[in-house]
Design goal:
Bound molecules: phosphoenolpyruvate, magnesium ion
Strand content: 15-25%
Structural class: alpha/beta
Number of helices: 27
Radius of gyration: 30 Å
Strand order of the largest sheet: 7-14-13-9-10-11-12-8
Shape: globular
Number of strands: 22
Length: 762
């Protein structure tokens, strides 16, 4: 059973067009389960009905035409109840409704299962049989299992289908709006740009074309071009590689000469597919056949076929294929990648970036944090959208809602531009108060600092706002390199940062890699990276890395004296003891090296991050050992709620406004006051209007946030009184869900005239 299931799902997911894939599925499933009829209905939420998308056993002409209302018939019942239905005689069921066009009079037994993805019913999968019988339990279980797998295939195909079907296609029923997770607020409009985009037959999305002659000639020219390239490559390495490698080129030549390949591709073109899609269709079949062969040598040839067809595909797509194109730096662009990384942002900073789309990651992953730090709107977790479909298309990106609109109509484009203008006006109002102090309307001062991660040069003007750096994520420059930076490189980097505002304190956090922050040159493979070798755990295991970093910080601080050192991911008191021992060692080493030098080395203040829930219960013990605390509310939320901050599937559960998180934050503030240790907060919520108000009311006097939020938070602080903030906190602490907390906070913001921030989703 499992093998059959895997085979069906694998084969179905390879078929480029959803309708074809579903048709194939209904036939294969009927055969595999030995039933007379199998059908798939997909939900259309605008029309509130299920459309028959494919069938094996019902009338073919009903496909694409017959719809069943959400509250009609057995299919509607399955959708409503969200559970399977197994009956020996469908006609005897009170909810049975007869649809003449499908011609199902001959069938009696009926089994249906809902197709559900992330709590949403996408459709219904049904089996029917002529005789009267209840389907067996294992058949029912099989159908339910298949339906769960099919849901993923449909979600992916839906997104592909959205964009691959031509405008005149009758079945054009998919929206051009793709939903992800909001990664960084803001609106962005620009041309999708996928760096290092590789032409790939498997990810290429099928397109229709009726111009058979043109497509056939494109295909033939591409084959000729490829033949020349393959010959040239073969000649170039002749004698330099073993014979069996050289033999690959012969296989390539044979394949290119094979009439059958050409005939099959051209036959497909004649069925209204363009050259690239026809090649894809034929080649994917070949690849599958080779992979299924028992001879391992022949199985391996699938790789060659794929490589060769990628070369033909590149030639079909021509010189303007994305990997050969250089982005015009003056053109507004949206950077799109499987996973947007820090180096990528640095690499493409010279183009006019208007936003970021990362297929992987979520609101709390580092790409999103980086985007927020750079003030770029971002959408994360846009799964199911092949990169090839976003490349080169006009994209509207909404970083507040997490939606991306592909190739919008003129009207939508106009509407979007109005929103962008409104957003800019709001920013202007915020800027007007930039030079004023950060005090509440009843005179309560708040200290606002910035979170930094790039070099001092890149952070540039941000230093002038706020009272220093509350969190410098030193791992960012580590992630931007191809090896660990040397001690001197680190000294130079840190010194630039400390010198950028010598009169303000700069809190440098020691290397916090692991979890979602991999170093390209230090791979860590773990089952549970967030519960694994992260932050201080890793650097204490590698004192050579820790000591070099501390030495570099201490050396950089000589003659300036504004450094503070902060330790990430502290879980136990012993980790603080061990870190302090190493810091003292580094201090003595640098002091000795300084003998004879008139400049003084000073011991910086040392603090720890409160981000692992265990430390909430050890504040008293830690208070004796450190100079300050800083709450990492991002990780604290992740670990308190047991929700991976990077997993788009559970991102709806990740919420710093969860009542449990708010209670924990309040307890921390009270404990820190009791044991008289200064505490700040540097997680993302400190930079949110509602978050900042609640935190201030809890007693946090020092908020550190990404620089783009600082002026907005200052504007908010100046608009509220401490008194009102405290009443708001009292009201929210009795609420039982994050949604209710946020509603309460938003209502308050509206009431004091800050509704613009709420409407803009800021
Ligand atoms: C946090 O966890 O809140 C924090 C500021 O650290 P990071 O996001 O870098 O893990
Ligand atoms: Mg953290």
């Amino acid at each position: 059973m499992l093998t059959t299931l895997k085979r069906i799902v694998q084969e179905v997911s390879k078929i480029p067009v959803l309708e074809d894939a579903l048709a194939y599925l209904t036939e294969t499933l009927s055969n595999a389960m030995d039933v007379d009829c199998c059908s798939i209905y997909l939900a259309d939420y605008e029309e509130q009905n299920f459309l028959l998308m494919a069938t094996y056993g019902l009338e073919k002409s009903a496909v694409g035409n017959v719809t069943i209302g959400f509250s009609e018939g057995l299919v509607g019942l399955i959708g409503q109840r969200e559970e399977p239905l197994n009956i020996s005689d469908a006609k005897s069921h009170p909810r049975f409704k007869h649809y003449g066009e499908v011609k199902e009079e001959k069938y009696h037994a009926f089994l249906g299962a809902p197709i559900i993805h992330q709590r949403k019913v996408l459709g219904v999968l049904t089996l029917q049989q002529k005789n009267k019988r209840r389907f067996k339990e294992d058949e029912e279980a099989f159908l339910v299992t298949l339906a769960t797998q099919l849901a993923l295939v449909i979600v992916q195909a839906e997104t592909r289908g959205t964009l691959s079907l031509t405008e005149d296609n009758q079945n054009q029923r998919w929206r051009k709006k793709i939903s992800g997770v909001p990664g960084s607020p803001g609106l962005g409009m620009g041309i999708g740009f996928v760096p290092n985009f590789k032409v790939s037959i498997t990810s290429h999305v099928a397109k229709r074309s009726k111009n058979h002659e043109l497509e056939i000639s494109k295909y033939r020219k591409a084959v000729e071009l490829t033949r020349g390239q393959v010959d040239e490559l073969s000649g170039r390495i002749e004698g330099q590689v073993p014979e069996d490698v050289q033999a690959i080129f012969q296989i390539y030549s044979h394949l290119l000469d094979a009439n059958s390949l050409g005939h099959e591709v051209e036959a497909h073109i004649k069925q209204d597919w363009d050259a690239a899609s026809s090649l894809k269709y034929v080649i994917e079949n070949y690849i599958q056949q080779f992979r299924n062969m028992s001879d391992p040598y022949m199985q391996e040839r699938a790789v060659d076929i794929e490589d060769l067809s990628n070369r033909i595909l590149a030639n079909i797509l021509g010189t303007d294929s994305p990997d050969q194109r250089v982005m015009d730096p003056s053109e507004a662009a949206i950077l799109v990648a499987e996973e947007v990384t820090a180096p990528m942002l640095a690499e493409f900073s010279q183009i006019k970036l208007r936003g970021i789309i990362s297929v992987r990651g979520s609101n709390n992953s580092h790409a999103a944090i980086l985007a927020r730090a750079m003030g770029l709107p971002a959408v994360m977790g846009l799964t199911g959208a092949p990169l090839s479909l976003l490349d080169g298309k006009l994209l509207l990106l909404d970083g507040y809602s997490g939606e991306v609109i592909v190739s919008p109509s003129a009207a939508i484009k106009r509407e979007f531009k109005v929103l962008v203008t409104e957003e800019l006006e709001l920013s202007d109002r915020i800027m007007e108060q930039a030079h004023l102090p950060s005090v509440t309307s009843d005179g309560y001062p708040m200290s606002l600092m910035i979170n930094a991660g790039l070099s001092a040069e890149m952070e540039g003007s941000h230093f002038s706002h706020g009272e220093g750096v509350g969190l410098y994520r030193t791992e960012v420059p580590f992630m931007l390199r191809e090896r660990f930076p040397s001690e001197q490189e680190q000294v130079d980097l840190y010194r630039q940062m400390l010198e950028a505002c010598p009169e303000k304190s700069i809190t440098m956090r020691t290397l916090d890699v692991g979890g979602d922050k991999p170093l390209p040159y230090f791979p860590i493979v773990e089952e549970n990276p967030f519960l694994g070798w992260r932050g201080i755990r890793l650097t204490l295991d590698h004192p050579e890395i820790f000591l070099v970093q501390i030495r570099a910080m201490l050396r950089a601080n000589i003659g300036i004296g504004n450094l503070q050192i902060m330790l990430p991911m502290i879980t136990s008191v012993s980790e603080v003891d061990e870190s302090k021992r190493l810091i003292r060692q580094a201090f003595h080493e640098v002091s000795e090296e300084m003998i004879g030098n008139d400049k003084q080395i000073v011991m910086p203040k040392i603090g720890v991050m409160l981000e692992v829930p265990a430390v909430i219960y050890q504040i008293q013990q830690l208070a004796d050992k450190v100079d300050f605390f800083s709450v990492g509310s991002n990780d604290l939320t992740q670990y308190l709620l047991a929700v991976d901050r990077n997993n788009a599937r559970v991102s709806g559960l990740y919420d710093s406004y969860h009542p449990a998180v708010l209670s924990a934050l309040k307890i921390i503030a009270e404990q820190c006051k009791k044991f008289d240790v200064p505490v700040s907060i540097c997680g993302e919520m400190a930079g949110e209007p509602g978050g900042a108000i609640l935190l201030m009311a809890m007693g946090y006097k020092n908020l550190s946030m990404n620089s783009h939020n600082l002026l907005k938070v200052k504007w908010v602080i100046r608009s509220v009184s401490l008194d009102h903030a405290q009443s708001l906190l009292t009201n929210t602490l009795v609420l039982d869900t994050p949604q209710r907390v946020k509603e309460e906070v938003n209502t308050y913001l509206e009431s004091i005239g800050l509704g613009g921030l709420v409407r803009a989703g800021m």
